[in-house]
Amino acid sequence: MCAPTHFAVNDSINPWMDGQSGRASSSRARSQWTALREILGRHATIETIDAVAGQPDMPFTANAGLLHRGRFVPSRFRHAERRGVEAHFAEWFERRGVEICRLPGRIMFEGAGDALFDEASDLLWMGHGQRSELAAAAGLARLLDIDTVPLRLVDPRFPHLDACFCPLPRGVLLWYPPAFDEDSRGLVESRIHSSLRIAVDEAGALAFACNAINLGSAVVLHRASGKLKRQLDDAGFTVIETPLNEFHKAGGSAKCLTLRVE
Fold first, then answer.
1. Domain count, the chain
2. Which region, left, alpha or beta, applies to residue 86 given φ > 0 means left and ψ of -120 to 50 means alpha?
3. What is residue 122's DSSP assignment?
4. Looking at residues 206-219, what average pLDDT do you find?
């Protein structure tokens, strides 16, 4: 995780940021981030990277890259506003002895925001079409020796896969189907049985219900409807809500603020 020391909304690189310039509260962001860290700390060990001045989106560590079995693939951000953090994240992993493996050329890839492992297999779901490029799926397959399934994102309100797609243990999936094109929805439905798919409605998706963190049986998120809580409870999960609306002004929530490092 990265503390929101320099968090702000100064630009507009997604629809959530439109009209929000200068309106983010640093104190409220810090309070919400601290509460999230305390919740996660009850379930996992938390490591942090120092915030860097001039990098207001650095708290969204999910986009730093993808770690898999001791190899880290750094991100290459589509927007120049975010590229300043690339070297900082790569150096953080390199200092810890992690092998750095880079995608060839200038393939756009925005890390674990667009690359999510299926909890029931070694399959990698790979979002593309908004930030990451389709070529990143094949590149990751070669670098990490894994199978990838590309999913095309078509709604600009969900620029990353983790904003609308959350694989959970035992093959359960929390997702917002309209964020994907028809072919991608078909790929998901062909691989995950209907009994394991929990579809979030638009209101839930816009409350970042899919941008959740899974730790064992706990699902940590900003807010879930009563219906979604019941569905997750029936699937064996406990919902933990914590306000993160200050980060919504920049287009991120719980999952965006974390990166698994093991």
1. 1
2. alpha
3. S
4. 98
